[in-house]
Design a protein that fits this description.
CATH superfamily: Gcn5-related N-acetyltransferase (GNAT)
Helix content: 25-40%
CATH architecture: 3-Layer(aba) Sandwich
Low-confidence stretches: none
Bound molecules: coenzyme A
Distance between the termini: 22 Å
CATH topology: Aminopeptidase
Number of domains: 1
Order of helices and strands: EHHEEEHEHEE
Radius of gyration: 14 Å
CATH class: Alpha Beta
Structural class: alpha+beta
Mean pLDDT: 97
Strand order of the largest sheet: 1-2-3-4-5-7-6
Strand content: 25-35%
């Protein structure tokens, strides 16, 4: 399963904002329209659309870490409900880590997750992310050293 991260453009913007998680997952990630709006006021944020071949399947948002110049943050990650459970989330996560290393020389990648989000926690820990013990705005912080 391989995926590609592509910029948000005039062509794919509407489609990216229409991607949705399952109703019971709505507390786990902000709507993509909100994430893209945030990039207007956080100019260092980088949104990317996740493609499997030519199919738009998800969304990722990156931001540098304020307190760690050698680290980079994955702020949002989502796979549309129609495409979940096929390995695309894991592939998108690996591609996101590769992006942080390639584009930002990241030596560690940080993310945070709602404690009740068992699926994402399982995915992250099996992909080498370790809980740091820190809680950020009620979310469990996890870091992967490169
Ligand atoms: C989390 C999310 C990105 C995963 O995407 P996905 O395409 O469904 O994930 P995958 O098919 O690649 O499966 C990833 C792993 O999840 C894990 N997983 C699946 N269901 C699980 C469960 N109930 N409990 C624990 N782990 C689970 C498995 O380890 C699976 O990996 P494996 O089958 O390769 O061993 C997707 O479910 C999503 O968008 N959720 C809503 C938004 C969200 O929670 N984003 C994360 C915010 S931090």
């Amino acid at each position: 399963m391989s995926v590609e991260l592509r910029p948000i453009t005039q062509e794919n913007l509407r489609a990216v904002t229409k991607l949705e998680v399952r109703p019971e997952q709505s507390d786990f990630v902000a709507p993509n329209a909100v994430s893209i709006a945030e990039t207007y006021v956080y100019p260092k944020a980088e949104p990317r659309a996740v493609y499997s071949g030519d199919e738009l399947v998800g969304f990722v948002l990156f931001h540098p870490l304020d307190s760690d110049s050698r680290g980079h943050g994955i702020v949002r990650l989502m796979i549309d409900h129609r495409f979940q459970g096929q390995g695309l989330g894991r592939a998108a996560l690996e591609e996101a880590v590769a992006f942080a290393v390639r584009e930002h020389n990241a030596q560690r990648v940080r993310l945070s997750v709602v404690p009740a989000n068992e699926k994402a926690r399982g995915l992250y820990s099996s992909a080498g992310f370790v809980e740091t013990g820190e809680i950020d705005h009620g979310e469990v912080v996890m870091v992967r050293e490169i």
